[in-house]
Records
---
Amino acid sequence: MVQPSLNTISLKGRTRRIEPKAMEVLVCLAQYGDHVVSKEQLIKTVWTDTFVTDDVLTRCISDLRRAFEDETKEPRFIQTIPKRGYRLLVPAVPVSPLPTESTPNPSRPWVKPLQVGLLLAFAVGISVYLRTPPQRPVVMRFVVQPPPGRVFDEVGPLRISPDGTKLVLFTSDARGKMLWLRRFDSATIEQLPGGEGADPYDGLAWSPDSRYVLFVTAGKLRRTDTAGGVPETLCEIQGMSVDSWGPNETVLLSRSYSSDNPRAPMKLLDLADCSTKPLLDADRSRYDWGEKWASFLPDGKHYLYAGLRIDRQHDVRLGSLSSESSELQIHDASDPRYVEPGYIFFERRGYLFAQPFSLSQLRFTGNPIQIVSHQLSYGGLGGIASYDVSRNALAYQEQQDLTHKLYLADSIGKELEVLDSSSVYTTPRMSPDGKKLLTGKINVREHSSDLWVYDIEHQVWEKTTFEASKGDHLGVWSRNGASIVYGAAVNAHNNLYRVPAHPPYKAETLLESNLDKYPTDFTPDGRFLLYIQATNEKGDLWLMPMEGGKSFPLAETPSDEQDGRFSPDGRWIVYTSDESGIRDIYVRSFSTPADQYRISWGGGRVPRWSLDGRKIYYLTPDEKLMEVTPQPGPSFKPGAPRLLFSIPGENSEYEVLPHGKFLVNEQLAPWHGPLTVVLNWASAVNLGK
């Protein structure tokens, strides 16, 4: 049996004490079950803020093997996977906690009979920490991975229960978003029934007693019992997100990111009758991106929130349910939480801080300190970071160091030539003459981007835009290659701009409004620009006349349509839509948009035409590049999909080139990595007041 709280391993009637770091290595291996854990992940988890070599990890593994009387050549407990890492060969089985004086049970031993292999009591070690913490709590770190086949693909939200024993979070795959629960006394993650289709943009909130979770699906506020049962629908809160659940069945609401109105006021919701009332007489000129991330203080009468600005100079403010005014607390900060015994946590450009705060005086009593040394996954414009905290538990997700690889591949995916792998690229486009490559480059740490052009022959990059957009730059070559039309969030929304394809790169505004717009293609004759216009997080295909005239929708539908491309003859448009409930590939007639045909079944993205228009390509949810050959005839008849090759990475892309070649933009690492959970986090930092 393993007891992390005592750093001991008991085997064959003998108890051995091991070094704390060796125990942390063992706990980390247990969190991954029988999966291989790389050396890099183990070092990152156990030695978070310290540089160590592989030799230090190797010594810890050797110490563990001695304690288990394990053999390297014929391991029974810890296996070395050459050039990959290590894995645990026996399961970590939870056992019941030790009986306390208040609940004696002398007639029944607390250690259950051994069934198979060794009983590893990692979960109970955590449980004992939570229920009967020692005088000097020991810090425990472990990693939460998404379930197999699913990813963490959004920045937040993740929420720890007020009692610090559970974590609720979102994951996604081609079928959509799902809600999951991780109990800290268990090594498994479980799906919450009824959480399918829950919108991460609309938030999560725990009940004060840590039993229920509020979430939003299609504008309806729902409540689920984490002890089991079917979720119930409570209220209609269209356009709002749930931020915090306070006493007396009151809930703080703020505007949803799926809403077109960034200045919608925060509201107080009464769950008894679903009535709402505005919280603040907000200063719209001061916070042009609205107010969000409200959270109750323990008294249930005051709350923290963030005032958001388009320039990302956000503020943390303190409000009261009895007043329409509020007070500035911290400048250049957002996403606040209060946590006992008296600290306000907040994010600043993705870095997590805590500052001592007196509830009785409602003021700060000390200086802020940085809690996590690494930058978290965050949204700069939205003022949100992927973290949550309770008195004894902290969960966060670090910003990944990402790069993509741009390369040329043949018809079976063989890499022919690497063009570049020094940045994160978006929507690469080859110029009409095939000599230059247009792509957005993202600064992951600053959350900004610009358009760049790569000269393939001379192997040099040239910057073509200088706005440092708060989102991705998405560019399209004109048909003659003389200019570039692109979408960028220069201010609050993605608008359309045009810039010459040669110096001087002076941009002009083509279309500006309070709706996001993304260019995708030109008609073959160059007379119309096809773009996506987003309303309430739903995209429609629109056309802009390039010789003057008003833009108009190709077809407005209830579905979310994205990534439209014209066939070379201009008769058809291939695009993606979630009409079927998952995102699939469709083809629509340009002349009669009501005529549409489904191409993929089971999910698809990144649709592209061959240069002769005789084939359609797309990527499946499991990253396979498929080829479809439409049958000849007056109407469109799609053929059966054929597998070509795989392109790893959930955000990888490609473009079709002449002579059966492809330009591949391969994502080399997941955009959002695993979550780190720290129990008894306060022992790891100096939070002196």
Note: Residues 432 and 481 are 6 Å apart (CA to CA).
---
Amino acid sequence: MKYVSGDNQTGEPGQLLADPFVVRVENRNGQGVSQASVVFMPQNGGRMVDTTVVTDDDGYARSTYAPGDAEGDYTVIASCDTADSTVTFHVRAEVLHNNVTIIKNYGDEQTGVVGKTLDSPLVVKAVDDQGRAVPGVDVEFYTHDGTIEGDTLKIATTDDEGKARVVWTLGLNVGEQHLVARHGETELTFTATAQAEAPAVLRKIAPADSVWQAGKSYTFQCAVYDKYENPVPNVDVLYSVISGNGQVQGDSTATVATDSAGVASVLWRLGYNHTYHNVLQAEIVDMSEIAPVTFEIDSVAPPRLDKSTVTSSKDSVAADGMDAAKIVVILKDEQGHPLPDYAVHISVTGDGNIVEQLSVKSDSAGVFNALLKSVMPGEKTVSAEVPGVGKLPDTAIILFTPPTPDKMYLVKVSGDSQTAVVGRTLPQPFVVQVINAETTPLPGEKVVFEVKNNLGRLGEGWREIVASNDSGFAEIYLTLGGRAGLWNHLVVAYIESDSSGVEFRATALPDTAAIIAKTTADSLTVMSGDTLTLGVRVGDLYDNPISGAALSFTSDADDIFLTEMPVLTGAAGEAEATLVMGETLGAHTVHVSLGAVSTDFTIFVSPVPEYLVYVSPDTVLIDDLDRKILLQARCLDPQDRPMAGVSATFRLVHGAGEFTQPTTTQSDSNGLVSTSWRPATLQEISVIKVVTAHDSLSFYLVPRRILSVAQATLP
């Protein structure tokens, strides 16, 4: 029997070969023998269309072979019981991939940080026209945005699953970035959204306006950028009015988040007095390491006085040099806003006028007071002017009449503008004198003293009647109330014929410290290394704030430190101390004291919570049982810094095998914890978990044969 054709063919696993196996049975003369029985016997799998074939008239026998379902080499032996030789056929079974192309498998449309590597790799899969995975295919990855494992172009070859992977580090510009995977004529574009890095700088933007007017509002902006000069959105910026008595968004401070361009805008209303030095500061909230920016406006146009008024308490006044009308000037701009801290010059027409200014400057409500007397009868016109700003549009008209000889007048003698501690009696009495138009003292006249504002008492009440003595004098002592303030106590004295009376004012000072109240929460839990701000308010027995008091903050732990000394109370009696927590864990007491007055805060210092990240892959494919598999993770603190000395334990959750290194370990100086594992079987997946006090990770050890079977059965 002789070989004719069909040897050394290559075909698809499980599919019939293109050509049959052909042999010829001959006699000794080389002539074909018909009707001879030839057997084609596969040696290691596969199937013949016809295993036994009878030769034709020319002695030829033919049969077609299909190799087995697995790739590899196959052998078929043809034999004939009447022939003394056999013929061996060799076949190579290979999957033939036609029209190979690539498709996206994983990693598209991720979001990451500029300059950082994306969390997941980019994966493409090579497939043929039957949808089967194709290994060994070179895929070209390239990008103009960032790098691919350190370069802008990389060739990756598909693995046994037909997959090619690369790791993409984003470029330094925010927005949409692209990476292209190419094979043959096929190009796939992966897209990632790059977000800005953490804020690195705060920069002010020059305002659009350059001419400023007191009391007007203007838009001010600053921008937040990362270290690559990308704008950073959604960052809280705190604007604070430092000086000038202006407002931002209707208050002294305002917190504004940056927009998509990294810009935080605020409406700043300048102070109503054009002599103020207006200063606005902007800082990023909770990022003291980034320098704040300051806006300063020195030259401001004065306000308009359109709605300012001049009024008199009386329409008619005796021209005796003692009877008086109270002149009230209220300074307001064209919008009706009060104008504080302005000096006012009062002018009066006619002769014999006496102007007594009760105010030095307008108060917070824009009010300026004066008294007007005259010794010359006649109609007087009162006008007002603010130096450097202009004249008021309003005037007041008062008629001064000839004096009546028998009219009584009340004159302030002494005791005005005293100062004492709250709850104490003033050192000097309030003294008035009752006289007539000829300045003769009038004894036995009833003088009414009344407390206004519900502050203080006269004797045992708020109202007392005192008869004038032989010299016409009447006096009374005021005991201050419990509320401290500048000129906040007011007593009015009057007689029936002069009901306008005279006013006495007194300033009440706070008493000594009697209480330290907490303004921030107590019993706080913080972490070692954290900073903590504690706030208190110091008040006297009447709860008046005490400013300028030097507080002592001490702790029972040697490693809790104050960042600033001394700690002084402000105008509202409030003070804040910033403390840095040490490494001594547990409950601690911070003692706040001022002389014999004190309070305590309780602070619980807990360890810094670590978190774990994979160093070894989370999934490892296993091919044999002799391999020792290294499992590693890294311990990081909340600022992504390696943590040394963290205790970690590796535990077997599922599967079979043995640890070949200790299972409980301490993280090294690089934060690494590790162990090694030897599997005992290739029949199941092993799951090993690493656990610390605050986190855990799981490693999956997967036998490759299990993965192959699973992939083969997936639809």
Note: Confidence is low (pLDDT under 50) at residues 710-715.
---
Amino acid sequence: MEKSLESAREELRLLREQQARRDRQQNDVERILTSHREAIEAAGGRVQEILQSRIWRTLVWLGGWFVSPRKPKARPEGPPEIRATQGAPRSGRRLLTGASTAKDCAELVRNAAGACRRPMSGRPRISVVTAAWNTPISSLAASALSVLEQSSTQWEWCIVDDGSAQTDFRDLLPILESTHRVKTRRLKRRQGVSGALNEAMRLAAGEHVCFLTPGDQLEPAALEACLTELDRGFDVVYTDHDVVNGEGQRKEAFYKPDWSPEYLRGVMYIGNLLCVRRETALSIGGFDARYDGIEDFEFMLRCSERTQRIGHLSTVLYHRRLPHSDPEASQEPVGGTDELQNLAVQAHLKRLQLPALAEPGALPGRVRIAPRPLASQPLVSILIPSKDEPELLGGCLRSVMDKTTYGRFEIVCIDNESTDPRALQLMESYRVKRVLFTGRFNFSQANNLGARAASGEYLVFMNNDIEAITERWIEEMLYYAQQRDVGAVGALLLYPDLTVQHAGVVLGCRGTADHVSRRASAGSDGYHGSLSCAREVSAVTAACMMLSRTAFEQAGGFFEEYCTAYQDVDLCLQLRAQGFRNIFTPHARFFHKESQTRGNYYDLGDRRLLLDRWGKTIAARDPYYNRNFDVEACNYTLKSEQ
């Protein structure tokens, strides 16, 4: 006992010494800052001006960095019972396989049903909807156990038998009905999965519906978590999911971004678990039998046309069983899923009056959105800040002039007092509009000056170390920039070795923001299509960025307090705050000799300014980069186990 007390006293003494050292450091920094402040006051009374200066912000930031104790790495969000991890499904139920006997299945379901006979006051809040056709009894039993074990008591389950010939699973239906939470209906003739799901939705009484395929399983907290999210005002909520193999091991977790309509057009990413307000589901006509096989994807496209109140839970709450034992779910549609996917997206684009074609992507399950030719071409202004560096400027101008297929564009060169005669000759020979920017270079001020001098309805901000690869790059970027709710559009930028330099910006990396998927192969699909399909991102680099003049001016242009860095992130966040979407497209490609003009200088004042203006937004995590990924790695690798 005495040893324990002595150990505790020693630990307390060490803690007090550490705190005293921190206090002394804090006092030292404060004394230094105070002496600087007094000297400034005595020198000229310009305190307010200097306190607002970049130097002062940097000093304060450095002081806070040395004094503030380091924060431990954040643990995964969410309650432990629904945290996403690998391994077996988090449940006490035993694994049911095709070899499980009907008697085993019935006994397990009967026991679970007996424990589930809890009263439900009023109508259910959420109806689980299932279409069954020739379903193995073990598949329905596995799903049943996951439903019966839900932590929420506000559910019902609507099961429609789609005219099955193999009917062993029907032995479970009376057991399930005994809970007074399960409704069943048997169709005399098979209607297909869409017809059966529509029948189940008509049977449902819940305010919301969610969809469960026989054999698949829900996490115990799945319905409770989804209801909580729906109560925040969403009409649709989806979750992350994974796959359970025949041995019951979880793998292939799909960690999804928050709602990303552009990404959905290229990738069937929503999947399961999908919960929808029943009124919304019925108002769009339910499922369309023409798209059986991808019925949930086509249904989601039409849902997104009705509402944008779509929420996402970054937690694996649904486990898909593979190989799928349910014939209805595993049946390949006539013509294949890829053809149906293209048809569904094309119909979606037509309803939205978007001038594009849905074409097969480079890989199965991917759709390429190809812009249609424009009836009339708006003027596009390409703004290139530059100072001397004739090799870089020449390569940039030559590639733009030689490769660009778009007819109406102008080049505005913002010249920071070039003296090299070769650079001056290039600007003259390529007939660029030269705008003189005098004094020390400031990226924001230079580009704002160029924008005022430009004549175009659409603006492209381009570094002089950029070289075009794609001939139709303006058409590809303009397709998005012309959409009224789109702000900045960024391109796929490559290093000379054909690896990725820029494919969108993720908030939070290095405490601020950085490019995602650096050094990935240019021909890679990325993480579930992140490098092969256009998608929403929080920000894009202004090394090659297009946006409408209207959006640029509405956002106030580039904030001119920045000198060399983060002004593009700031502009994109300002656009996002005003309701615009920022888009990355991999179909406009360029080489980027990153920052060869200004070198590797890193401006701490710019960093501090970004955090002053957008610190809360950055700390809230990037909605398009799932919280289960390591934001410091910024390459879609999972966080280390805590």
Note: Confidence is low (pLDDT under 50) at residues 64-94.
---
Amino acid sequence: MTLLERLKNEDKIFSYPGIYTIKSARNVTVLSDAVTLKDAIINGNLILGDDVKTIKIANTKVNGEIVKSNENVNIIEEFKWKDGTFEGNAQGEHGILKVQVQVESGKIKNIKVLEHKENQESLNKINKILKQIVAADGNLEGIDVSNDKTINSAGILNAVKDAISQSSGETEKPGESIVAKQYQELQDGTYEGLGQGYGGPIRLKIEVKDGKIANIEILEQSETGSYFEMTQSMLKKIVEMGSIDQVDTVSGATVSSKGILNAIQDAMFQSVGITEEVGQSDIAMESNGGGRKRGRKPTEPQGNAYPEGSLLDGEYKGEATGFGGTISVTVRVKGGVISKITVNSHRETPSYYERAVQILEDIIKNNSTKVDTISRATVTSKGLLSAVENALSPNKEKPEYADGTWYGQGRGHYPKDHVDHTSGGGGQLKTATEASVKVEDGKIVAVNLEYHGDDEAYKTPEGYDLIEQYIIEHNGIEKLPEIFASKDHSQPIYDAVSSATNSARGYVNAINDALNRSAKYKKDNMQQEVRSIRMLKDNFPKSANYGEEVDFSKLMIEVKYLDGSIIQVPFSEIEKYGITCNLPIPFIPQPDDNNYAEEKNFDLKFTHEKSTSAYTFDFQVSRKRIKKQPSKIEFKIKGIETPYSIDLDEEEFMYGITLDTKAFEIIQNAISNDTPIEDVIDFVKVFDSDDKNKE
């Protein structure tokens, strides 16, 4: 291995705050404060720079020295395992592997194989892996078994992890951990899986026959057509092999193919009993660096108690943010207490939603949102609680509508603008669905779909006709959300839109927005001259970094008036047109909990002061990455006074250097005696393009 390759592959340098799982490295240099190193083996030295005041080391072993520039640096060591003896099971090459793991002082002290069906050669490999695990002082993630094509090495590692899962409190008995179950034979049947692609959720169905994947059917995806087409060869290979073992992501479509693999694994988890429902596994919601990261910070509930009789009877709508986006509810008050709560729309993972929705019964029973969240569905629970609070604050009367024609916008299947790649969509940029409502003498006399914001394939004209008739007949949306939530095919409306209920909800949301405008005018007599607003996203900055001001100067807002006229307003002039922005200007984004390693989504929302028109766009912020090309390496051989240097060229990857006789003999002797290179080289300096160096 050349010196350059060693520098590129084995040494790590961290210059930003964050949490890093590095598995293994030779030397690690930390230049920033507030860094956490997790699950690592550092074979050389841990070098702490001048700015490091506190560093956290979790399940990390340093074989060399900790070199501190600042003697007052606070080094916090953490171990997550409790002491004791634990047994673990996992699948080996020829049967179940059973081990006993002894933990002392938060580290693995000893491992015994209790049961196996392997031959002596396999057992020798297993014992070699066990020695590595004990030597790793708890860093199981740093154990590399990828070179062993059998499953024995992975199996013994998983058996140890199964035992450790009891030490960490994740499981109670051997064989209950995910790693112990995931290599079991697949049970025949049909299973649905969920994964996150670049364009959004990927939902698919796998068929298992004789313990192998026999067929894969894509049920839902929003990937760019050309990239999704590139993944078809991967799907064919999986079916041919009957599994996803040794199947890599597709170069050029990495995020889409990773989302598909995660969805298949989510389905496989159900097959072996790890999970019970689609989307229940952690891997189902893993963000793969795609453009539509679904995980959101929930609206925090206040925990309100509502004394009996303090609420006016009626039905009230409210919204809040859950994991997947906006949760919309209708709360019915009867006799001064909460009598019913209906979820109108949501974008939560089905399995988590079904668990969290139980919290609505607790709210009704206690006439309060001061109830415990549902375990393993905390974020969705908070969204539901906050949506109910939003509906009841303030407690609202049944709206009265002002005469006129009113326009509204609503989101359905897609929470934000997207490109329609479906048949008939023509690759057009689609925004929110738009509806108009005509009111005469306080009664709704006409409802029309002005613009369909979802893909054309999701448009159901027959169902929309029934929705319009229902709203006119009931002079409002009344129990329409309840019909959607019930999923009752005996209801003509639901049956007509059941193939695209989210898009239908988007139309209802747009109608409700128009009715809210009408009700608003009835109360404040303020003209609603604006029909819609939206942002021209081509002018939005391509990326934003933590700690740096986001450049909004080139943003353009498109405003559409009731008379059909359209104007484009520069960001600097939005206030002149009655448009406000939710973010402070200047806006300098910061990460949560000082975690610069984690990307974060921010909502940018524009609202028109004289109407309910609003437009929301989310953008992603990450830590700034600066790529600098090494220009020169300088090193000194022990015993040689003059250092040597190599000029680097980004087009080259191998270099030669002429040594004098003495230096050559030193290197030759080191190679012959298998002497570590660290014992021969006195120092190494790498110069970047700015002539800065790091020893």
Note: The first helix runs from residue 3 to 9.
